Amino acid sequence: GSELAGWAMGRWTYEGIDLNHNFADLNTALWDAEDNDLVPHEFPNHYIPIPEYYTLANATVAPETRAVIAWMQRFPFVLSANLHGGELVVTYPFDMTRTYWKAQELTPTPDDGVFRWLATVYATANLAMASGDRRRCHYDDFARLGNVINGANWHTVAGSMNDFSYLHTNCFEITVELSCDKFPHASELPQEWENNRESLLLFMEQVHRGIKGVVRDSDTEQGIPNAIISVDGINHDVRT
């Protein structure tokens, strides 16, 4: 059936690049700096720069990936979701295990509570995930976990868009696995839309949670760009 046969179809670009693993690995640089007590006075805990090797002309970076990064740098997104297929679960960063040789390991971000909330908001409003008689897609019983999981605790991914968004921009991003079936038939699409419509709306509404405002110069009343906002107890700053 279409749930298992040809699951990798369309996964790689014409150049043979898997876009889901194609962003710069910023996790390793951050964790090395943390291990050497360099964060945040010598190495930032946010807006981590892209490594030089990744910007070289001969680097294995797809034009689609470069375009998305340019888009993210141009617009100050704060909330995002990317949509996948093949499972029924919502994953949240980090997607890469901190212990490099482990295939699975709980690896939370400093904003773990917010990410778990965002994932849960989507999952609890998704009709397929929230169904009392839903079956497992394949092997993992995500229903017993509330249909959410830390990405690295499922399977490690280096260079994911979720981790890159969090470490290089202000954006909090999750991954939504929409359906057991990667290739639903046309007749099934209306139901897939109904399954996800309310989840998508509720997720977008979460952009209004938390603290928001404008940082201004006390003398001129002008807004201050790139002002760093720090929260006690959260080792991850954001910028205006």
UniProtKB/TrEMBL annotation:
Keywords assigned: Carboxypeptidase, Hydrolase, Metal-binding, Metalloprotease, Protease, Zinc
Tagged with keyword Chaperone: no
Residues at the active site: 177 (proton donor/acceptor)
Gene Ontology terms: biological process: proteolysis
Co-factor requirement: Zn(2+)
Organism domain of life: Eukaryota
GO molecular function per UniProt: metallocarboxypeptidase activity; zinc ion binding
One CC-aspect GO term: extracellular space
Family matches, as InterPro entries: CARBOXYPEPT_ZN_2, Peptidase_M14, Peptidase_M14_domain
SUPFAM superfamilies: Zn-dependent exopeptidases
Domain Peptidase M14: from-to ranges: 1-207
Family statement: Belongs to the peptidase M14 family.
Full protein name: CPXM1 carboxypeptidase
